[in-house]
Amino acid sequence: MRNLETIIDKSNLLDLSKKIFNVVLNTDEFQEEREVNLHSKILNAETINFVLADGLGNENLKISRSDYLKSFNSFSVNSTFPSSTNVALSTINYVAKPCDTSILGYYLFDKVQYGLINALNWNYENKDLLKDEDIKDNKTIWTTLKARGITSNNLQPKDLINSALSEYIYKDSHQIGYKDTDELNEIISDSSVLDNRFNFIYYPNIDISAHVFGVGSEEWHTEIGIFENFIKKLNNSQSRKTYTLITADHGLTNIPEDNRIYLDYSDDIEIFGDQRSVYINGESSKVRQLFKNVPGNFLTNDEVKQLLGNPESNLSKRLYPDYCFLVADGYIVFPKHLKAELVGYHGGVTSEEMEVPVIELTNF
After folding, report:
1. Spatial separation of the C-alpha atoms in residues 188 and 289, rounded to whole Å
2. What is the Cα–Cα distance from 175 to 161, expressed in whole angstroms?
3. Across the strands, what pairs with 198?
């Protein structure tokens, strides 16, 4: 099991977001608690692009065939805890800890009203949680950019634009949808689309290939090659002095079929969160009995608070887990609500899952 101090003490996606947005806004609005040393050229850039390559972890990048991307990889930071897409994206867009965004994991459990919630694909009822008094007035970075009159665009896959999660984390952004990478390439070929102070581009395909085919598969290498070509085009397509930063929400690790553990438990125990960083509510003795043969470790309450933040609002207390269990490297658990068999997974604290690259390019 990885030493949690290497997660708690190292710069992470929240620190990186604070640094970038302080530069974009030309202010010290966000208090920077850990040092993030970006290339000095960012200070002279007219346009700043922030590209989120879903699933392109730093350790994954090292074994890829993309010498181009590796050559511009300045350093790495940690993802969020858990190392999940919705947690990372909400942290970046609200420039806030998971407790303050109320997106604590892949699955949430609301102890008061909605019960188990898929926090990627919200249903028609439980998406109303995102209108709760404790978070409905929270400002995204897009709210701040809009209020300051700073031009920006947010490029997203078309099928994500109207989702409940996108409406929450990208509140007040100007979204441009694209069907596939070909259409994305067409959009950026018009330099005027990106002639803004700030642009955010979310790119999901590397993550999809790693889930389905596994890290290191030919399909995965192909997707990274397609992404590399997109980045080359992006860096050459803009007319203004442009700095582009590429990072990820997490990396992935392949899990052998023999190391998949299916949990059988009574209705008075609630399992949620992620399959490798597992949240549990229930009576202590029953919870520990359920996990007694699962390789891994329970986190203390203090450790959970260091990773997620301290629950202060009524909503965060409703969603906060009683326990958190870190599944050992190479293993994964399946609670009752999850059946899909994939190859690559994330959500845990291995270096493959937690460390994400900081790739910096400029056209000047």
Report:
1. 54
2. 7
3. 48, 152
Q: Tokens 């959009």 identify what position? A: 187
Give the position of tokens 């926090």: 119
Q: What count of Cα atoms within 13 Å lies in the side-chain half-sphere of residue 58?
A: 20
pLDDT in tens, 108-132: 999 999 999 999 999 999 999 999 9
Written as six digits, the tokens of 259 are: 């190391």
**Is the Cα torsion angle 293, 120, 321, 302 positive or negative in sign?**
positive
**Tokens 């900081």 -> residue:** 358
pTM: 0.96
DSSP symbols for 62-84: HTSS-HHHHHTEEEEEE--SS--
> What's the pLDDT at 327?
97
| Amino acid of residue 331 | Y
- Which of 359, 349, 293, 322 is closest to 81 using CA atoms? 349
User: Buried (b) or exposed (e) across 37-48, using 16+ Cβ within 10 A?
Assistant: ebeeebeebebb
Q: What one-letter code names the amino acid at 354?
A: M
Beta bridge mates, 175: 154
User: Among residues 71, 110, 62, 80, which one has the least CA distance to residue 12?
Assistant: 80
Omega before residue 98 within 30° of 0, cis: no
> What is the Cα–Cα distance from 336 to 333, expressed in whole angstroms?
10
Of 21, 15, 67, nearest to 42 by C-alpha is 21
pLDDT above 60 (res 1)? no
Containing 164, the helix (H) or strand (E) segment is helix 164-169
Pick from 267, 278, 255: nearest CA to 327: 278
Q: Is the pLDDT of residue 146 over 60?
A: yes
Q: Which of 198, 132, 144, 201 is nearest to 171 (CA)?
A: 144
- Give the contacts of 255 (CB within 8 A, at least 6 positions apart): 330, 331, 332, 343, 344, 345
